[in-house]
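Convert to structure. Protein one:
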Amino acid sequence: MPRWLPRAVVMALALYACFRLGSWAFDQLIGLLVNILIAFFLALAIEPAVGRMAGRGMRRGLATFLVFIVVFILGIGFVFLLGSMLAGQIVDMFDEFPKYLDSVIKWVNQTFHTELSRVEVQDSLLHSDWLQRYVQNSATGVLDVSTTVLGGLFRLLTIFLFSFYFAADGPRLRRALCSVLPPSRQAEVLRAWEIAVDKTGGYLYSRGLMALISGIAHYILLIVLGVPYAPALAVWVGLVSQFIPTIGTYLAGALPMLIAFTVDPWYALWVLGFVVIYQQFENYVLQPKLTSKTVDIHPAVAFGSVIAGTALLGAVGALIAIPAVATLQAFLGAYVKRYAVTDDPRVGGSSRQRGEPVWTRARRLVQRAGRGPGPRSGGDRRASGARQVTGPGGGGGAGGTDGESGGTGHGGPDDESGGTGHGGPDRR
């Protein structure tokens, strides 16, 4: 047995053990890594505001704390508006439930010729087995819901803590990162950091502005139609449609349509039509003007990045995909050499060369095809004798009327040159 074989086997087993250990550790820490990634992008988003406040003499820690207080107040206000709307709808639903039940019982009695009453239906529902089983299952599910809520709150706290440290200690973090790199690489890292801050902040700025415009537009519509809870619905439409990619528009429009349907079914159609029209206006007019100076990314690239981010990290990947791709595109754009595009009509999608019209070239082709080979009249020979072109040993052409010399005639088998054509009658 070779002496190197035991050592190679031990090394292979050690590498395999390290790989398995790394895979297990990655699976256990994937949640924490995703939280850190979200916190990093959140810190990049608030970096312009923190940097502006720090530039005016405020400490970065206090500036970061104030920014988070504003974000927290806005989030609490949004939740309060939606909670009040949902609570009001639930109360109204319970108040109107006896009327709904009476109308359903009346329709059943008239349609199926039965004699049901609301008291009998309520007693049968309250003493039914499936209702008791549902209550028992719900009681056990309360613990699961409580665990999920507590886990979500702990994850939210983790994200805010990491993002606070990233934003408050941003200069120290950049200095520590650059201290382990050579000077030539430090400039690249700082440039990448600056691009990431600009693109992420610009993305959130443009989305926030579009959310404000969308909320105001839908608020005016809901007020005109007389739909209840118009402020909460307007905030819902603005935030959900802008910050939830791909399906946010449909989720945002579904709730106002449902509330409007309870007032008048035709109002739901009005809301649907307005949502569709406004979405087209936003996609083709508003969004290109706002994002061209902030994100500067093609809509197809944005859509593909959202799909890829969703496949990799779920909803988190969908949220951070666009600023991440915009940052990567801007960073790599400095290393791509670009050239001036030639003035070719095919660049614009046209395969036809510019020049004379098509019908002129077609008429010339028809004239050439109509001439064809064959004997010609004397006048034609006189007019075209000087223009005849010889092939290999071609025949001699007739001379012109003014003494033009003819073409070269066919040569004999032992002579390569042809005979000389006759000159015209008016020789000079």
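Protein two, convert as well:
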Amino acid sequence: MVVLGFEHQRRAGDPVRDTRHGVRLGRLDQALAEGLDAGVTAPRRAAARAILQGAIDRGELPAGLDLDLGTDLLIAPLAFRVLVIQGSSDDEYLETLTNAIEAALRAAVR
């Protein structure tokens, strides 16, 4: 059902997902997008990837883990909650989120 919701948004012309109009997050200003990538996105993704690779090397995550997807799974849920919906993140929420991400990481195998 969630996937259908995203497909509906894309068909409906959601400006975040619809590239026909040349609009995507971070693409409104090329210099801003490049600065965010170099200063924020790339270093955080590299750190997340290193954490995942360490867990793979220790046998805590499957060897076939898709590192790009795994990186998205580590970063995106909390970033969305904090930056987009400005939701609170108490200890109970963070514990539940950690368990959900752990399960998703184990399933994110190619």
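Residues 1-11, 17-23 have pLDDT under 50 and may be disordered. The longest helix spans residues 30-57.
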